[in-house]
Amino acid sequence: MVFHTVMVKSINLRQVEAFRAVIENGTVSGAAEALHVTQPAVSKLVSNLESDTGLRLFDRVKGKLSPTAQGMRLYEEVDRIFAGLHQLERAVETVRREERGHLLVGVLPALSGHFIQRATMRFMEQEKDVFVSLIIKGSPGLADWLTTREIDVGILNARVDHPYLDTEPFLAQSLVCILPLGHPLTGKTVIGPRDLNGQAFVAFDKSVEIRRATEALMDDHAVRLSIVLEATTAPTVCEFVAGGLGVSLVHPLMATTVRGRVAIRRFEPAISNHFLLAKSQKARNAGLLETFIRCATETGAEIMRESFSD
């Protein structure tokens, strides 16, 4: 019995990158653009990979490359390897962060404007040699990045409950009523549930805790909100109020993006609302974290005082 063996030459990484780029971009031209090389260079790299591996990775159909079953099977392995390389790159960056002053902060879109700008600049004034990276994401994404130690600290919404995170209530405040400038209710210093009966109301989506808490209070006072629009994010709600569509109830810090373009009034009875300050149970940079948290807390208190003084 005679056995035939196929000798596989050493595979060049550039060949693999070209192969992967063709699969992901769909065309040789797209791959060439992604890799910043010429189309003939990509074609040659792919052809050499096929020759070196003994695999038919693409069918040539009307001048275009169409991946074969072998090609897709190889791509699955290549993609898995590249994912591992990305994890290695993140691990390298983690080690580098531990060797130098670098703080990674995750924050919700609702707080990604005026508040986080002021809090971060206050921190940087006190820690002049520290480099700060801000990551704006929703709470689930921030929680995942905290557990993998890709960010150091996060400000999340109050519904996150993760077994590997240390969390504490942060920037707890009562909701305020925001109104378009010139709205009849701006003549009042305190707004109550019955004041909102029949008023056009810009609401959060039903998935947002503020919406549920607001509707529960309104039900207690037999008030039915006249909802004209609902949105999932605070900046969107605030912008529609500033545009004159209606009134709303928000956490005071959420209104900072439209400060000066809306009127802010106290709302009673109080509806308490807070965010969560979250960090990994094995968080690094403890000293920097403590300073940043103090700066964020002080900034939040200042902004809320300023809102009512206006």
Question: What class would the helix/strand composition place it in?
Answer: alpha/beta
Tell me the number of strands.
Answer: 13
Radius of gyration: 27 Å
Q: Topology as H/E string?
A: HHHEEHEHEHEEEEEHEHEEEH
The CATH class assignment of the largest domain is Alpha Beta
How confident is the prediction overall: mean pLDDT? 85
The CATH superfamily of the largest domain is known as Periplasmic binding protein-like II
Proportion of residues in β-strands: 15-25%
- Taking pLDDT < 50 over at least 5 consecutive residues as the criterion, the unreliable ranges are 1-7
Main β-sheet: number of strands, strand sense, barrel status?
Answer: 5 strands, mixed
What does this structure look like?
The chain is an alpha/beta fold and 310 residues long. The chain folds into three domains: 13-94, Arc Repressor Mutant, subunit A (Orthogonal Bundle); 101-171 and 274-309, Periplasmic binding protein-like II (D-Maltodextrin-Binding Protein, domain 2), CATH 3.40.190; 176-270, D-Maltodextrin-Binding Protein, domain 2, CATH 3.40.190.10. 43% of the residues lie in helices and 23% in strands. It is built from nine helices and 13 strands. The chain has helices spanning 13-25, 28-35, 39-53, 69-99, 114-126, 139-147, 209-220, 234-242, 286-309; strands spanning 58-61, 64-67, 102-107, 131-136, 153-157, 165-174, 176-180, 190-191, 200-204, 226-231, 248-250, 262-267, 272-280. Strands 4-3-5-13-6 form a five-stranded mixed β-sheet, sandwiched between helices. Helix 1 (13-25) crosses helix 4 (69-99) and helix 5 (114-126) packs across helix 9 (286-309). The longest helix has 31 residues, at 69-99.
